[in-house]
Amino acid sequence: LKTSDVSAALNQAGFGTDNKLWLIIEDLCLGGSLEEAYEFKDYAQYYLGSPNNVPGMGLPYEKVIPHLTTTDNDNFKLSKIIDDYRADYKRSAKEWTSMLNEINTYYPSLGVTEDNLALFDFDACTLTAVDLTKMDAVKTAVDAYAQEILDNDNQEIAGLYFDKSAREITKTAS
Which of 76, 77, 140, 149 has the most beta carbons within 10 angstroms of its beta carbon? Predict the structure, then answer.
């Protein structure tokens, strides 16, 4: 399932600039990029996704759903969802072992063991809330920055060096 498939389905369901959802949540690895958020800008006011890997069992929906039904302001709701997500992955070794057993019970084909559990960097839990009403401005700024890099042959710009002949961008020390 591609992001463009989801946005096409939302369009077919009647969502768009005049009929937006309040929030689109992508509970999947590497879903919180600007490109992902931009794809949904016409279908929702806010977007929630993780630009990193989503560890364990994903979002703690038993905590997320109650936040969605409150009368709190939008920023507070989204902040609480992010706080609960981060807190959910701050567990003791005993809690991780319990979760490991649960994963292996329901998803034995994943092959998660105590040896490879360390591959999941649970301190790198990321969840990003994006105000999709600002995505056009973000796109304009990113496009302008990219054009500036492309227009300046072999020059350093804001910590990046673009070698036009090699068509490579290198991060510099400055």
Answer: 77
